[in-house]
Amino acid sequence: MVSLWPEAIISCSEPVRGQTLEMFRSAFASWNLPTHAPQACYAMAETVFAISQSAMRHEPRIIAVSQSTLQDAARAIVEIPEGDPDAATFVSNGKPISGVAVRIATPSGPRIVSEGASSGAAGEIQVSGSFVFEGYFRNPEQSQAAFTEDGWYRTGDIGFCADGELFICGREKELMIIHGKNYYVGDVEAAASAVEGVKAGRVVAFSVFNDKTDADDCIVLAESDLVDSMDLRMIKRSIKQAIYDAVALTVKTVDIAPVGTLAKTTSGKMSRSQNRDIWLQSKLEA
Length: 286
Description:
Number of helices: 6
CATH topology of the largest domain: Rossmann fold
Strand order of the largest sheet: 8-7-9-10-11
Largest sheet: 5 strands, antiparallel
Number of strands: 16
Shape: globular
CATH architecture of the largest domain: 3-Layer(aba) Sandwich
CATH class of the largest domain: Alpha Beta
Structural class: alpha+beta
Strand content: 25-35%
Helix content: 10-25%
Distance between the termini: 56 Å
């Protein structure tokens, strides 16, 4: 029995989900884990780690916003009850730490993340501070593209602020625009990963342009131990339904691969770009 837990167990490598926090608390409840111990932090190497941090000794705030308005081009943030069918939930990454300024580049202009402030819409998170890096080693073009004209670092992450706290939606380059709506691949992958029979965490989603419809389609690849053809058909249907239920997105194609076959990055994460290239090549060769 663990009698002394650390003051906080902080997650900062990926967007933190409320369901993950609850699962972690439940898994260690019998070990007397304080419910406030799991915390969220927004951090990256370009800022020498932390940008914002949820409040210690308090459970991170979770809010629900309208998924349909967030998916529109204006990316409006409208808070609604968590049980609403249109609700998308986000975990607070807390307030910016001392010495760093954060702003949200909303469609209507930048909004500074400050005490009690709300951005009203989602947009790219931009950062300024004395410990923000100056650029990428021997890569002047990438370094120049990483900063705005007025010197703010462009994180490439989409987020919003509510009551002075920072919430992360996902990576801008991982945003899929399907029929004019914005979808984050992380949300799609999380819904598919929760389907029974899918190897948890072994899912990738990406968009592919369809010449016939002149629009992008969503493609989902998932690993599974199942081999029976009837089981595979059922799991494909279940994945499509789970994604539609979660984010109201109709997936064009779901392909199932044996466990261990989808490509990963050198850091062990699923590689969306590499799996997309492999999938496209397989269609050309078919």
